[in-house]
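Task card 7
Instruction: Convert sequence to structure tokens.
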Amino acid sequence: MIAILQFLGTNCEYDVEYAFSLLDAPTTIVWHKETSLPKDTKLVVIPGGFSYGDYLRSGAIARFSPIMKAVIEFADKGGYVLGICNGFQILLESGLLPGAMKRNENLHFISKDSNLKVIHNDNVFLSKFLPGEIVKIPIAHADGNYYIDDKGLEELRENHQILLEYVENPNGSVSNIAGVCNKQKNVFGLMPHPERAIEKTLGQDIGLKMLEGFVRVL
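Output:
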């Protein structure tokens, strides 16, 4: 079962639900005030949007929603968690992923297709890709400027935690980083939206291949 979280201001939960339906994967949407995840949960997805209107900082308030305690416990026990865009920001605020997110370097909201380079594939999320492979995935964010200090960046590199890098950096992210995972490789976060690249009639379906990596753990 895939548990898809829903916060006040989330706007991509049904896109994620539809994407996994194309992979015949069972899903359920979990309201943020719930205090536990469904017992058969194998993957938690925190989708994009503007939880709590992005007030204070993106993801800073959602991090304290009741369901996040259950998500942190789930992740600490090795459960798989995927954060997309605002979901990535929530994972950073929760301490489940290293680093922080800042306002885009140009201070504007960016919405466009973005070419990404696969950096490491020794993880379930990108297991169907090759290192160096270029994929095109939409981005849509105002606070996508990923930051981590030099020591943290070196650790990301040493532990193969950098998942994706922008071919052309749109937001000022350190080392062009578009997505990272934790050391245990069970918590993943990325700013691009794979659930918006799942049908060729809409441009490309490469995002479905990304999400497919999780199906084998269900």
